[in-house]
Design a protein that fits this description.
The chain is an alpha+beta fold. The longest helix is centred in the middle third of the chain and has 18 residues. The protein is globular and about 60 Å long. The relative contact order is 0.13.
């Protein structure tokens, strides 16, 4: 069964990427406990597509984890007895170690194979990496999976992607990343045993400095429910941030550092136009890919969001979860929006039969200025001038002084209290 499933999974990955050809591989090898895999290429043009590894459970379900060459990741489930309807997506709830469920969608790519495009938020990745057990509830059925060695599996898959992109599949070898044994703790005098410490979950997003008093803006959904919030500029130590105010309706939150930052953004005063260029900067996939921020460019595709929501801009600059709360700049380096979301490709595929590309959204500065005004925050503004246009590299260089990685830590004890447990 394993050979047949590997072939199906490889082909399905390319199908999901809208590539009308099959896959070839595995090249090199991934061996992490019972997880086996390697690198795969497009059989039509030989281009590297993804690294994946899978294992078969006693239930007969083959479970696969993949990371694509662009850093996106997905899960795959297959069973010989399933009779699914290709293209008809269904809701799927994933739970890790009994924590609150993540609601995603399963997309059948064949009668026996389900693809799950994973939203790349740090909380989900961290839970998957650390969890001992995962449950999947879909179509009135509950499946359980022991997640052995996943703390080593994700770094190994990432190492596979990085290595193949750098050295090519012809030089592929064993991609497994060795884990370092924990250092022995110094011996201490015997003491009464203490109850196990409550675990903490963390997630990350992006924020930017908006005032000379140390105020930072991000999305409400980045910091909602956090027990502790920290922020740090690239390459600098994190500082603790306190929540000053938030607006769940417009998905905005205002934080403040204990001391001011050196640099502050300027908000564009006059409206941006459709077709104008934009630059998005943020921290997607933090802890999985680069620890530095990423820079993407695009244009303003529309002056309204979903269902003509005029609070938002639609942009073509590629963003991922982790970019949330980050600044969207015009070509002078002034902020024209707060990156907020990307279109749910699986839901749109389910509704329309096609997979959308590069449809992302940012909150306009009008809503941001109203929010800051209501919070009594003094901010800087700038008028658009054609002669002040900058190169993307200069905008990115300047952004290092005011674009922060935001880390939200949720103490399990606090989370349980809020849930009434």
């Amino acid at each position: 069964m394993r050979v047949a499933i590997w072939a199906a999974v490889a082909a399905a990955w390319l199908f999901a990427s809208a590539t009308p050809s099959s896959a070839r591989g595995p090249y090199g090898s991934i061996t992490v406990g019972n997880w086996k895999g390697g690198a795969f290429t497009n059989d039509k043009n030989g281009a590297f597509t993804h690294c994946s590894a899978g294992t078969t459970y006693q239930s007969g379900i083959f479970f696969m984890v993949s990371i694509a060459e662009n850093g996106s990741w997905r899960l795959g489930f297959a069973h010989d007895s399933w009779r699914l309807t290709p293209g008809e997506a269904f809701p799927l709830a994933l739970t890790f170690d009994g924590q609150p469920a993540f609601n995603v969608y399963g997309m059948p790519l064949g009668t026996q194979l389900v693809n799950v495009e994973m939203p790349v938020n740090s909380s989900l990745i961290n839970q998957f990496r650390k969890a001992r057990q995962m449950t999947a509830f879909a179509q009135r059925q509950l499946f359980q999976f022991n997640l052995n060695q996943t703390a080593q599996l994700l770094p190994t898959l990432l190492n596979c992607v990085v290595s193949v992109k750098k050295n090519g599949v012809s030089n592929a070898g064993e991609f497994a990343v060795a884990t370092k044994p924990a250092a022995a703790a110094p011996q201490q005098a015997a003491a009464p045993s203490a109850p196990p410490a409550k675990q903490a979950r963390s997630g990350t997003g992006t924020g930017f400095v908006v005032s000379s008093s140390g105020h930072v803006v991000t999305n409400h959904h980045v910091v909602g429910g956090c027990s502790e919030i920290t922020g740090n500029l690239s390459g600098e130590a994190p500082v603790k941030l306190r929540l000053v105010s938030d607006d769940e309706t417009n998905d905005l939150a205002l934080l403040q550092a204990p001391t001011p930052f050196k640099d502050v953004v300027s908000l564009r005063q006059n409206p941006i136009l459709v077709g104008n260029g934009v630059v998005a900067i943020g921290y997607p996939y933090h802890g999985l890919l680069t620890s530095d921020f990423t820079v993407t460019t695009g244009i303003v595709s529309s002056l309204s969001g979903i269902l003509n929501d005029t609070r938002h801009l639609q942009i073509s600059a590629a963003v991922q979860p982790g970019n949330s709360g980050g600044p969207l700049f015009d070509l002078t380096g002034a902020v024209v929006g707060v990156v907020a979301a990307k279109l749910d490709a699986v839901r749109m595929a389910r509704a329309t039969g096609t997979i959308p590309e590069n449809i992302n959204f940012a909150i306009k500065t009008g809503a941001l200025r109203d929010f800051l005004d209501n919070s009594a925050v003094a901010y800087r503004t700038a008028e658009w001038r054609e002669e002040m246009k900058k190169e993307t590299a200069e905008i990115a260089k300047n952004a290092r002084g005011y674009t922060l990685l935001i880390t939200c830590t949720v103490n399990e004890q606090s989370a349980n209290a809020k849930r009434g447990n």
